[in-house]
Amino acid sequence: MTAYVLKFLGIYVICLFKFIGGPVLGTAAGYSVFEIVIVTVLGLMSSVIAFTYIGSFLKTTYHHYFQPRRKLFNSKTRKMVHLWQKFGAIGVAAMTPIILSPIGGAILMNAFGVKRKKILLYMLVSGIFWSSFFALTIDHLRKIPIVSGILN
């Protein structure tokens, strides 16, 4: 039981920073698809909640004390604005597990003023969808004889 909890916590910590780690490591640990979805979504939502609520506090505190004087637009901010204008909040939430990290998606949505409840809802739906997709895809790939022969 202790080994199970330690594996679960290890995968959870990885999912705080990189979403794809959950389905890959969960499969390697021998978890069921349901367990993989649970640990992956828990990791995603923990970092989203932390950076949604704590991030706005840190942003105001940083600007209050340090007053950064830098260029408003650089290549990185232009890409973020373009991504936002093209896809909006739902698109950013849908792409967060694939392109961005959970932290990056939460920060981007906060920066553009999306309400907290919408951030949490969109990221939860996106996390459930993508973790289920990746877990089921990996599970089906492991059933192919050539792939299972390579992995074992």
Decide which structural class fits the backbone: mainly alpha
Stretches where pLDDT is under 50 for at least 5 consecutive residues are: none
Q: What's the total number of strands?
A: 0
On the 0 to 100 scale, the average pLDDT is: 86
Radius of gyration over alpha carbons?
18 Å
**What percent strand?**
under 5%
Gap from first CA to last CA: 25 Å
Total number of helices: 7
Helicity range: over 70%
Largest sheet: none
Shape type:
elongated
Indicate how many domains the architecture comprises.
Answer: 1
Organism: Anditalea andensis
Transmembrane segments: 9-30, 36-62, 83-107, 119-138
Protein name: Small multi-drug export protein
Keywords: Membrane, Transmembrane, Transmembrane helix
Outline the structure in words.
By secondary structure, this protein is mainly alpha-helical. The chain has one domain (2-151). Helix content is 81%, strand content 0%. It has 7 helices and no strands. The radius of gyration is 18 Å and the shape is elongated. The mean pLDDT is 86. Keywords: Membrane, Transmembrane, Transmembrane helix. The chain crosses the membrane at residues 9-30, 36-62, 83-107, 119-138.
What are the main properties of this structure?
transmembrane helix; 81% helix; membrane; 152 residues; mainly alpha
Q: What is this structure's SSE topology?
A:
Blueprint: H1 2-17, H2 21-28, H3 33-66, H4 75-95, H5 102-111, H6 116-142, H7 145-151
Task: Describe the structure concisely.
With 152 residues, the protein is mainly α. The protein has helices at 2-17, 21-28, 33-66, 75-95, 102-111, 116-142, 145-151. The chain has one domain.
